Amino acid sequence: MTPDTLTPDQIAALFTQADGSYRFARWGRPIVPIVFGTDDATLSVVKGAVEAVVGMSGHKMAEHDPELGANLMVFFFRDWDELLAVPDLDKLVEGLGTLVPRLKAQAATQYRAFRFDPEGTIKAAFVFIRMDDAMAEIPAADLALMQAVQVILLWADGALRVHSPFARANDLTVLRPEFASVIRACYDRVMPGVATDASHALRVAARVG
User: Fold this and answer.
1) What is the C-alpha separation between 43 and 49, in angstroms, rounded?
2) Which of 132-146, 156-170, 188-202 holds the top average pLDDT?
3) CA–CA separation, 73 vs 160, rounded Å?
């Protein structure tokens, strides 16, 4: 393996859950983002980051999702309780009423939830970002890239903390080339949109090696 290539085991770890099960999914429909709770400048930055990551992956974006309107919803807010006041959000994010107190107790600053099509591909994603003082210090472009990468695939919980996909270059946060290669391989048209067997990681590795 070259320095800019992840090993098959490292790739498998990206999609292996805490219980040892392998669960991979990519988007099965074009991505339509919408951003709440921010100004026009930040909105443009977030949508630009999503467009960049989607374009790099080889997937597609659209202006409208025929079922949901928008299928990637990004929320910026100051307090988790604000989510409980968003009309019908509890219908889109299962268990929101119990999720919010848990995130408050953890002093969490971000959370992502996914919905899936019947075949298991990603149907929608919801990104929640609580802008405390520390999060407010992160440049909008960096924060946007981080969120775009984290929703382009169904990564295992905590996997991107173990193997960070990000690096710093010229005072900017950038996507490491080895992770860009993994994302592109996962969106290869001959690859499945859903996988539950770790042999999938070998197929991904074969395309990035």
Assistant:
1) 10
2) 188-202
3) 21
Collapsed DSSP state (helix, strand, coil) of residue 203: helix
**Quick one: which of 117, 133, 132 has its CA closest to 26?**
117
Name the residue among 112, 148, 153, 104 with its Cα closest to residue 129: 112
Place of tokens 């472009």: 141
3-state helix, strand, coil in the chain (%, to 5): 40, 20, 35
Q: Is residue 162 pLDDT above 90, yes or no? A: no
For residue 153, pLDDT over 60 is answered with yes
State residue 1's pLDDT score: 40
Q: Which two tokens stand for residue 2?
A: 């070259």
- Exposure of 15 by Cβ count < 10 A (0-12 exposed, 13-18 middle, 19+ buried)? buried
- Per-residue confidence (pLDDT) for residue 170, from 0 to 100: 83
